[in-house]
Amino acid sequence: xxxxxxxxxxxxxxxxxxxxxxxxxxxxxxxxxxxxxxxxxxxxxxxxxxxxxxxxxxxxxxxxxxxxxxxxxxxxxxxxxxxxxxxxxxxxxxxxxxxxxxxxxxxxxxxxxx
Length: 114
Hints:
Elements: H1 4-26, E1 32-40, E2 46-54, H2 59-68, H3 70-80, E3 90-95, H4 98-109
Parallel strand pairs: 2-3
Antiparallel strand pairs: 1-2
Helix pairs in contact: 1-3
């Protein structure tokens, strides 16, 4: 069970990262990266960020690009939350494939809708 403080920090990180990704992907065109979930460790040292990437065919490519630019993303985040957090957590990114999983299950349950 997460404490209220951890939930507030998770929401703050999610909101700011969403804004960072929105501005960066607007330059690319045809790509949408949204932050679906953020989990912050109890000591606030690590944040696990789950990203939903559209189109899903380019998800691995975009995730590799995001991981390569992890330090600059963390710096941008730290600049945005510098008055709310003393220390910006390390960021680890993962693909949130729950929508693909739901679509797969739906196609298995309803094969006539293909």
